[in-house]
């Protein structure tokens, strides 16, 4: 009777893994604290740098890109602040989730935060790729029909979509549960029922965002190279576009290496029907944490002002790309002119030896 009443009183989030859990060594507390502090500091520095650059910039396309970057930095900062504070608090105090959160409100909130901040960086990367694709391939339409308010609206829409997806388990599509070792909550990764549907939504949406970013960035790079290498008096400088594309490519590469393994692992687990291996899930989630730490350093370090200080002898402008692309043509022209002058000198020497008059022009 007591067992049945205990089962009836058990909330959904504690139905799979029920606290209290065995305390784990302090190494986990140090690991979580160091990573959270490093990520928060990096994102704060990036936000200050972005704010100063935003006040100085006068380029429309750069302003749009910096608004997206600002949204990405704020998202990463809040993600580390929300989830990191809960995880670090548990490792320090080892509180009992049942006593602190008997109705699963905190567990559901953390699960929603994990889903929200796990999707937002990838979706913002796709939105940035779309903005750069339009800005490079259709610059006139981009500059005339995309005000700053629309860019802010796109960032808010990404947050809204990710928030709606995070709310799906609260209406029955999926469910949030306590996860081992008891310091965090996440949705139930299972091949049964609504948990299967939500797991696929989470993983496929992240993979789709990466795919869109890869395809659009590839087209933008090809277009940008063609425009930069085109000669002409009316060719406008593309230094800002090159800098933005370099930063966007690095953001995409970091997201692919850090976040894609988690999405692929979840999709493989639910599609194969195998039981969840929590140790691999924890490993890939730690990889995903690096995305929030490395993203801000892309903008902090990979700017022309910083690159010129690091390597002042190199030319970090469009002219360097044009010169690199036309290096082969320059060598061929120089070789042809050298051979032509050598042949003319030899012909003139032969004429002098034979006392022949020079040819008429």
From TrEMBL:
Annotated keywords: Cell membrane, Disulfide bond, G-protein coupled receptor, Glycoprotein, Membrane, Phosphoprotein, Receptor, Transducer, Transmembrane, Transmembrane helix
Gene Ontology cellular-component terms listed: plasma membrane
Pfam families: 7tm_1
Transmembrane segments: 29-51, 63-89, 109-130, 151-176, 196-225, 246-271, 283-302
Region (Disordered): 340-361
GO molecular function per UniProt: thromboxane receptor activity
InterPro entries: GPCR_Rhodpsn, GPCR_Rhodpsn_7TM, Prostanoid_rcpt, Thbox_rcpt
UniProt domain G-protein coupled receptors family 1 profile: residue ranges: 42-299
Mode of membrane association: Multi-pass membrane protein
Main location per the UniProt record: membrane
Localisation: Cell membrane
Gene3D superfamilies: Rhodopsin 7-helix transmembrane proteins (1.20.1070.10)
Name assigned to this protein: Thromboxane A2 receptor
Species the sequence originates in: Pagothenia borchgrevinki (Bald rockcod)
